[in-house]
Here is the input.
Amino acid sequence: MNAGFSGWYGQLVNIAEPATLKALITKGKRTGRTYAGTISFGALEKVSPWLRDAGLTGLSNGDKAAVLRFRLTLGPNRLPRRLITVYPGSTHISAAVAEDRQVGVETHYTGWGSRVSVKAPAASEVGNMGKREPADRGGDRG
Here is the structure.
């Protein structure tokens, strides 16, 4: 998950994926430039490689049936400008901790079409880590 543990409370929808954006637009009810609706985590997992790789794979059947509410607003250029999602905290946090709490995330998208320059680092600055073992997620850090 991006941003470490705090990423669990981040935006779970990657609208930069064409299939994910299409799913939201298709499932949402349009009012002007805003699409609002719901999508199950199971349906979102099917269309979003990012979600599958973000550490939420292995969702239980109950979690796959859980519903994420969304409100997606497009700008005048028809590119995403704002996305608000609300979903049950129990989908990826212990149900005992989350109880019936909801997680809400608002994301603003800016700079579409800006020029970006990405340069590869010098070969001397690149390391080869080889095959890595999964990180130990236990305590014992002290």
Q: What stands out?
A: The beta strands are 29-31, 34-40, 67-74, 80-88, 102-108.
